[in-house]
Amino acid sequence: MNTKLLLQDGTEFLGTSFGAPHSVSGEVVFSTGMVGYPESLTDPSFKGQILVLTYPLVGNYGVPDPVYWESEKIQISGLIVSQYIDTPSHFESKRTLSQWLKDEQIPAIEMKDTRFLAQKIRNDGSPLGKILISDHISFHDPNKDNLVAQVSAKEVKKEGKGNKTIVLIDCGSKENIKRNLLRRGLQVITVPWDYDVFASDFKFDAILISNGPGDPKMADKTIETAKKALEHKVPTMGICLGNQILSLAAGGDTFKLKFGHRGQNQPVVLEGSKKCFLTTQNHGFAIGEMPDGFKPWFTNGNDGTNEGIIHTKYPFMSVQFHPEAMCGPFDTEWIFDYFIERL
Amino acid sequence: MTPLLKLPKKILVLGSGALKIGEAGEFDYSGSQAIKAFKEEGIKTVLINPNIATIQTSESLADKVYFLPVEVEFVGQVLEKERPDAIAVSFGGQTALNCAIKLYEKGILKKYGVRVLGTPMDSVILTEDRDMFSKHLSSIGAPAPASRAAESVEAAVAFAKEIGYPVMIRAAFALGGQKSGVAYNEEELKETAKNALVFSSQVLIDKYLHHYKELEYEIVRDAEDNCVTVCNMENMDPLGIHTGESIVVAPSQTLNNFEYHTLRSAAISIIKTLNIIGECNIQFGLNPHPKKGRIEYYVIEVNARLSRSSALASKATGYPLAYVAAKIQLGYRLSEIKNQVTSVTQSFFEPALDYVVVKIPRWDLEKFKNVKSSLGSSMKSVGEVMSIGRTFEEALQKAIRMLDIGYQGVLDKKFPDDKCDIIKEAKTPTPKRIFALAEALKRGITVEKLSKETGIDPWFLSRIKNIVDTQVSFQKEPKLNRETILHLKQLGFSDRKIGLLCGKTELEMRQERKKLEVIPAVLQIDTLAGEVPAKTNYLYLTYNATYHDIEPFHKEGIIVLGSGPYRIGSSVEFDWTNVHTVLALKQHHHSSIVINCNPETVSTDYDISDRLYFDEISFERVADVYEFEQSQGMIISVGGQRPNNNAKKFAAYNIPIIGTQADDIDRAEDRNKFSDLLDSLHVPQPEWNKFVTVEEAKSFSNRVGYPVLIRPSYVLSGSAMNVCYNESDLLEFIEMATDVSKEHPITVSKFIEDAQEIEFDGIAQNGELKVYAVSEHVENAGVHSGDATIVFPPQRIYLQTEQKIVSIAKQLVAALKVTGPCNIQFISKNRKVYVIEMNVRASRTLPFISKATGINFADILVDALFGKAKRIEVEYKDYVVVKAPQFSFARLEGADPVLRVEMSSTGEAAAFGEDVEEALLKAELSVGATRPKKGIFVSIGGDENKVKLLSTLLRIHKLGLPIYATEKTHKFMKANGIPSKRLYKIHEQMSPTVLDCFKQGKIDLAINVTDYRERDGLQGYYVIRRSAIDNNIHLIMDREKAFLFVKALTEKKDKDLLVKAWGEYR
């Protein structure tokens, strides 16, 4: 079925639909990872976004069982690839990517100029766009919505057994964060983004503020919780959006990057060393102003922007990248160990 | 930037020597990048590499070059003389690494206080000793297939019983998987193990992982333990086919995120335990259907050096692996090394590709008689192509055309309709397997069935099926609308192929396509998939995009065509001229645009040209680039025969050729026209004619007298050329040749025996010679010039002969209005000079001549193209340079090593000396010869040969080693008072036989000169020749070569082989 992608500035790309046959609008972003589309599609950080994959062949290994996803459903609004592969080959594949997208009502198009589109996004910033298939719809800026509220857990959930308990504030958390915590013998209590853990009746030893979609300033309730955590000296870790939330709670500020970091090959340098790690990233904002009492923890190896902060005295730390990987390299999984050792 | 270690002042770099199967142009690339990386730091570099055709041995790179064998004795002397403070051992392949291990183990490195750069030698040895490596893997908990080293066939059999068949057998310390294979039973194991033990003291027996996927990761690690995998690659063929023999894709296509990153993490953790510093390659076997868990894999091998795969990875991603490895070895951290491609990021990252890369090896097995054509765990290919596309289909079909073997796409090879068992063809790994897969799918074999039989992942087969289905449906109903044509182009169909499918010529199809506005886009390889703006000059064309990444150069640009895949007859020597032409263009203030598709070359390096199109050298693609760039013109004379073949088409399409014009090229290449030209100039040529019937050819041959030479019209490295000594030869070869090319008549010419062959290389401007050099063959005419041993300056040519040659050359150059390079081959007998061939392009000998004379002919070539060449007279100095061919027969199971008019060598090495004997001996030692220490076998066919070699036999006697000989040679020697032990041929049914003696290791030099008139003799000695190769005995088959080699052996002691740098000879 012929279809098109229309950007806010009027740029139009023709393509063929291979997902759900309806139109959708959202913010158009790209990722340069070469593997991991099931993980990316189910990553709640992409909520409200139309995702462009720059690696041109997508669908190669089909879709695995939901236990391997990063959340219980596809989170992106739409998918754009250069060549859709409808003949997957993998022992874990349960269905084709196209079938999955149709099952979950997500539109997708195959169009050739994904590289040009990525370059355009890189230069102009992420535009609003819409995949037009049958119905006419208007542009919609997801950043004006409280996306965190949309993807966050709706209720409190306890999992795992262990001597220590960690609260995972789910702002759109990837499953692999929880898997990493459980694997390390912690009890994990997942709470909604706006849940006040300090008013709760359960005891906990630490807080982890997860990744998530959209503008961190919209997650006001989470910022409040983070402030309390800092006051009460509760060990706190942040990942991606959690990093920005922690930084805002501590009095820091963020700014928009000229070129965002979007892929699985972003180098970060551990401050005070020459150690480099390769990380998965997907963000357009970075911490500009360092909050009081914190120092830079990681710095981007390419553009020198901040990639993580750590408190000089207390176990407060956060990273802009994804130590839980999935998709991407496992090189910074040790961050979880580092944090847990300090509980 | 502050390196961790104190920078060395002087580094000795070990090269890889002559190009051979398993070790080819990739090490010119890696060595050249390393030398550049060292030089940038102000470090002096000294290079040992006898490969005179390489770019790394050019004046502009290393400060000092020694054209000497990469052997302990010579390297030790260079160390003593040069006293470098460091040695770089990982840029010269297995040859350099093996030499370094010996230097280390003998304490020579310690003696001279030389630091080994990069990975510590103990780690290198650990990765090279397969048994130790296997133990290391178990000790760190890395999964390794059950494996053990065996030093005898019996031990190998016992272990195989323990772990069960099939098993993989590999020789330790061998390059490119030499002498290895899979055995399904004891008999096969015994045979393979026995063969492997001839070359190596140890064989490794592994559990064979049937139909596992094979994956590779290229890793760089700095001294502070920072580590990235630059590229992962997936072999299309399942485990068991050497990665150099496999179709390889990058990145992997069938791995999910978990598998990709689990293997990546495993690779990194293993490399860390090995303390690799620099670059290395790790290979995994992955079970496509794990029995338990999400992943089941084994570590197959680690190469602690730059490799063929790393060259491919470097070109596939744009990440300059060798350059970065060299900087790391100096002590820099990855994050301190600038990303040379983007210029804004650094080297600690893993490239993101937004395209897919397909590599296909190029084999030339049909050039060898009796060779076994099935592929396995040892290398047989002589080169490779790499293609870039945005669909697998596009990349695959591009790659097939890049091979330049006459196929436009996957369905182009014809298999007999009914009788042929297509599944068997698809199942057997051979060079034609890719075509058999497509044909099988066309014949309705399902992807599932084919995958089960071949072990090739259904993913690849489904993609091939997509090509097949598209072609079949287009052929049924050829719709020439935009949608259909665009779709075909997006799947990699050429204009010519589409035209063939719908009854149009290539040019008609091209016009039709352009009318429909189906035009390829020019995209950059930027290492970051467009995430960051890059200043890269590295480009490819695709129909799976509609926007160009760049603007054309317009008139400032000049296109330079490369030579495509290395093959028998076209190798690094053409890349040398290509690179130097490109470099010289800068001096003339032109922007160079290189088109080439060979990942082993230096011409495709990121810092050579102003623009590099890593793409096809086909007419279609070149015209696409020309039309996009709107260039001033094109240089086609510096890429061997490949670009030349399209000269007429380019001219007809109005692409300006810079240099000799297409019509004049044609007058040199078309035998009729060239012959007429020679006649009109009264230049003698061996009598010849063209024939379409056998009768005509027969009567001609009878008239001029046998032997005669037969060949087809256009010749590349003597394809289908043969000497016929009688009528039955003639009939047999005509039949063979007709198969090669039906449209073209067969050419028969008088073959002049016992004639000297002479090479003339020159550069002309508007028909006027500006510089030239004459060199002579050691072997008489009849041995292909690529297989000949060449001497400069000539030692045996009369002054008058040389004067005649030069005067003929001047006439020809003027008649053809040559501008640029040319090479003329002459033969001379009884002071009469004949022209046998002329090529109006840079020849194989150009780098040799340039380095031997000290005059860079490529620079003058470019001057000539722009009308600025000055006349230069080559002076004969008081040294001699000899170039010797490198053969790779040991790699090609069964291949007859006989020398013929067809070329069979894979490379060359050269050496300088005070006289021809010294230079020859050094050159021969560089290509695998050794001084005999055990015994010498002699068998000389024909009375004339025996008499002519009597002095040689007397010299051999003086060497004081046992001499072994066959019947007639034995008698001849006895009659002349030379004692020898008689050996028997198998049919004589007496012992000791020649073969026994070879196997028992009593012989380390075999001289087997055949009388070519006796075809029975020629064939009868096949077993002996082959056995010499299989037992690693240096074999000499040419009379003149035997004479000179033995003379050199007796006259030159080790101390006479002077260790002098190139510069000391000038």
Describe the structure.
The complex is a heterodimer of chains A (343) and B (1066). With 343 residues, chain A is α/β, with parallel strands linked by helices. Chain A folds into 2 domains: 2-144, 3-Layer(bba) Sandwich (Glucose Oxidase, domain 1), CATH 3.50.30.20; 148-341, Class I glutamine amidotransferase (GATase) domain (Rossmann fold, 3-Layer(aba) Sandwich). Chain A contains 8 helices and 19 strands. Chain A has helices at 37-41, 97-103, 114-124, 147-151, 175-183, 220-231, 241-249, 334-341, and strands at residues 2-7, 12-17, 24-31, 49-53, 57-58, 78-81, 83-84, 108-110, 128-132, 157-159, 164-170, 186-192, 206-209, 236-239, 253-270, 276-289, 294-300, 306-311, 316-319. Chain A has a 10-stranded mixed sheet with strand order 10-12-11-13-14-19-18-17-15-16, sandwiched between helices. In chain A, helix 6 (220-231) packs across helix 7. Chain A is globular, with a radius of gyration of 20 Å. Chain B is of the alpha/beta class. Chain B is built from 38 helices and 38 strands. Chain B has a 7-stranded antiparallel sheet. A 7-stranded antiparallel sheet of chain B has the order 31-30-27-28-29-32-33, sandwiched between helices. A 6-stranded mixed sheet of chain B has the order 17-18-21-20-19-22, with helices on both faces. In chain B, a hairpin with a 2-residue loop joins strand 27 and strand 28 (768-780). In chain B, 62% of the residues are buried.
Secondary-structure topology with pairs:
The complex is a heterodimer of chains A (343) and B (1066).
Chain A: E1 2-7, E2 12-17, E3 24-31, H1 37-41, E4 49-53, E5 57-58, E6 78-81, E7 83-84, H2 97-103, E8 108-110, H3 114-124, E9 128-132, H4 147-151, E10 157-159, E11 164-170, H5 175-183, E12 186-192, E13 206-209, H6 220-231, E14 236-239, H7 241-249, E15 253-270, E16 276-289, E17 294-300, E18 306-311, E19 316-319, H8 334-341
Parallel strand pairs in A: 3-4, 4-6, 5-7, 6-8, 11-12, 11-13, 13-14, 14-19
Antiparallel strand pairs in A: 1-2, 1-9, 2-8, 3-9, 10-12, 15-16, 15-17, 17-18, 18-19
Chain B: E1 10-14, H1 26-39, E2 44-48, E3 64-66, H2 72-82, E4 86-88, H3 93-105, H4 108-111, E5 115-116, H5 121-128, H6 130-139, E6 147-150, H7 153-163, E7 167-171, E8 181-183, H8 186-199, E9 203-207, E10 213-221, E11 227-235, E12 248-250, H9 257-274, E13 278-286, E14 297-303, H10 308-317, H11 321-329, E15 356-362, E16 383-389, H12 392-402, H13 422-427, H14 433-442, H15 447-454, H16 458-476, H17 482-490, H18 495-502, H19 506-515, E17 521-524, E18 538-542, E19 557-561, H20 572-587, E20 591-596, E21 611-614, H21 619-629, E22 633-635, H22 641-644, H23 647-652, H24 662-669, H25 671-680, E23 688-691, H26 694-704, E24 708-711, E25 722-724, H27 727-740, E26 746-750, E27 756-765, E28 768-780, E29 790-792, H28 799-815, E30 820-829, E31 832-839, H29 846-853, H30 857-865, E32 880-886, E33 907-913, H31 916-926, E34 936-940, H32 943-948, H33 950-958, E35 963-965, H34 967-975, E36 981-982, H35 994-999, E37 1005-1009, H36 1015-1020, H37 1022-1030, E38 1034-1036, H38 1039-1051
Parallel strand pairs in B: 1-2, 1-4, 2-3, 4-5, 18-21, 19-20, 19-22, 20-21, 34-35, 34-37, 35-36, 37-38
Antiparallel strand pairs in B: 6-9, 7-8, 7-9, 10-11, 10-13, 11-12, 12-15, 13-14, 15-16, 17-18, 23-26, 24-25, 24-26, 27-28, 27-30, 28-29, 29-32, 30-31, 32-33
